[in-house]
């Protein structure tokens, strides 16, 4: 099969983690005789530096002409530390999500047995964690009006949702729950916010079409705590844009690192695949970032291409690598490996090149003094 993939590295560690995902895709292409054609687009600070715009038109064109987009991350301390900046890298990722109508952001969270002892949470809390967050991605407070008045003394960020925006992602989340353990938590703040009350009313209506799925409501503040004390209770979490953003980073702590989590953003047209994490600028260029979130995002892209066997092979390669103790510094601060080494191991596994008993000492260990 032939597929055209728009590749957007963005900023910080975006390039180095995405390069590992491309290695995995190239290995899959070789094994299954597919052709993946990549075209690069600019987004974020790299795009502002090159064109003055966080999302150049050319990038939108490249994305729209592709079957899917593989994205790294955006963000740069030059903008983070400048509240007066008029143009920001993050405007680029928000704008492309809107432009491509990516309303459904799917963030699976799975714990790895072999890594559980390295998680900051107690073992008994994280065993058998396997849930998925459905985060609404193209509306809510990130897309409302942002403005100041009163000579800059008052700031406003407006949160708006309508029934259609809630219904379309609710259907996606319920359909997924039907194929999983048939439990769906709607996370909101309906005791305070009008938008949350609209979510509850709309999702309750949608739920009538999915009578085999148990619907539960949970307030966001409680959900943030429940994720830590009993994450195993969740199957599908459905929530709005801001709450989903926060809960998915929190979920990184459950698995052991935010760097492990992938995501798929879907809408009516194109699929967009990116790790959950951001630009982690302190690590940029040091070959220490965890590439697994990006590689598993590529696996989600393969599922989107209707290549389930290929996607499974990538997931198996990731599991083998982690279970064999080949991990980056975020997972094990003593024995850790380069980003590129992990990428090489994963693509070698896909290509069937890994011997049964690989000798770890042959693979270069990071020096713990590197940063
Ligand atoms: N989707 C995107 O492009 C996102 C962009 N950002 C932007 O990224 C920049 C940095 O933001 P932060 O809040 O520091 O979030 P971040 O996700 O970049 O990093 C937070 C922390 O998570 C860990 N981490 C993240 N990714 C990792 C990886 N691949 N391997 C190992 N550890 C990893 C690191 O400990 C890091 O300090 C900001 O400019 C922010 O606006 C933040 C979140 C998402
Ligand atoms: C710019 C942010 C909204 C990106 C982010 O944090 C995310 O999508 O997880
Ligand atoms: Mg986020």
Radius of gyration: 20 Å
The proportion of strand residues reads: 15-25%
In total, the number of strands is 12
CATH homology superfamily of the largest domain: Isopropylmalate Dehydrogenase
Structural class: alpha/beta
How widely separated are the two ends? 43 Å
Mean pLDDT across residues: 94
User: Which small-molecule species are bound to the chains here?
Assistant: 1,4-dihydronicotinamide adenine dinucleotide, 2-OXO-4-methylpentanoic acid, magnesium ion
Function: Catalyzes the oxidation of 3-carboxy-2-hydroxy-4-methylpentanoate (3-isopropylmalate) to 3-carboxy-4-methyl-2-oxopentanoate. The product decarboxylates to 4-methyl-2 oxopentanoate.
Protein name: 3-isopropylmalate dehydrogenase
Family: Belongs to the isocitrate and isopropylmalate dehydrogenases family. LeuB type 1 subfamily.
Pathway: Amino-acid biosynthesis; L-leucine biosynthesis; L-leucine from 3-methyl-2-oxobutanoate: step 3/4
Give a summary of the structure in a few sentences.
The protein is of the alpha/beta class.
Topology:
Blueprint: E1 2-10, H1 14-32, E2 35-40, H2 45-51, H3 57-64, E3 68-73, H4 77-80, H5 89-99, E4 104-110, H6 123-126, E5 130-136, E6 146-149, E7 154-157, H7 163-179, E8 183-188, H8 194-207, E9 214-219, H9 220-229, E10 236-239, H10 241-255, E11 264-266, E12 271-273, H11 292-304, H12 308-323, H13 339-350
Parallel strand pairs: 1-2, 1-3, 3-12, 5-10, 8-9, 8-10
Antiparallel strand pairs: 4-5, 4-11, 6-7, 11-12
Helix pairs in contact: 1-11, 1-13, 7-8, 9-10, 11-12, 12-13
The structure holds 1,4-dihydronicotinamide adenine dinucleotide, 2-OXO-4-methylpentanoic acid (COI) and magnesium ion.
2-OXO-4-methylpentanoic acid (COI) is lined by residues 90, 93, 142, 245, 276, 278.
């Amino acid at each position: 099969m032939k597929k055209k993939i728009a590749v957007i590295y963005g900023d910080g560690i975006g390039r180095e983690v995405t390069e590992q995902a491309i290695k995995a895709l190239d290995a899959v292409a070789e094994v299954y005789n597919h052709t993946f054609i990549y075209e690069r687009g600019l987004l974020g600070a790299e795009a502002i530096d090159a064109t003055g715009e966080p999302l150049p038109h050319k990038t939108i064109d490249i994305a729209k002409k592709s079957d899917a987009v593989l994205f790294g991350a955006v963000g740069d301390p030059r903008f983070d530390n400048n509240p007066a900046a008029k143009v920001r890298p993050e405007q680029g990722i928000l704008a492309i999500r809107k432009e491509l109508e990516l309303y459904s952001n799917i963030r699976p969270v799975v714990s790895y047995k072999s890594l559980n002892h390295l998680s900051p949470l107690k073992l008994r809390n994280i065993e058998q964690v396997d849930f998925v967050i459905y985060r609404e991605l193209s509306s809510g407070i990130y897309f409302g009006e942002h403005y100041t008045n009163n000579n800059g003394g008052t700031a406003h960020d407006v949160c708006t949702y309508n029934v259609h925006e809630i219904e379309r992602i609710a259907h996606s989340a319920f359909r997924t729950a039907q194929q999983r353990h048939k439990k769906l938590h709607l996370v909101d703040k309906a005791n305070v916010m009008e938008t949350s009350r609209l979510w509850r009313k709309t999702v309750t209506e949608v739920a009538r079409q999915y009578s085999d799925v148990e619907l539960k409501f949970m307030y966001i503040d409680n959900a943030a705590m429940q994720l830590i004390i009993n994450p195993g209770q969740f199957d599908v979490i459905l929530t709005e844009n801001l709450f989903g953003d926060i809960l998915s980073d929190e979920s990184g702590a459950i698995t052991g690192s935010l760097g492990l989590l992938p995501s798929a953003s879907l809408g009516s047209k194109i699929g967009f695949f990116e790790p959950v994490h951001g630009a982690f600028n302190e690590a940029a260029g040091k070959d220490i970032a965890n590439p697994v979130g990006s590689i598993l995002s590529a696996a989600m892209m393969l599922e989107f291409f209707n290549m389930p066997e290929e996607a499974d092979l990538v997931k198996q390669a990731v599991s083998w690598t982690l279970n064999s103790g080949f991990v980056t510094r975020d997972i094990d601060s003593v024995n850790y490996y380069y980003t590129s080494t992990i990428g090489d191991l994963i693509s070698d596994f896909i290509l069937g090149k890994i011997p049964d008993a690989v000798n770890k000492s042959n693979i270069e260990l990071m020096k713990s003094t590197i940063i």
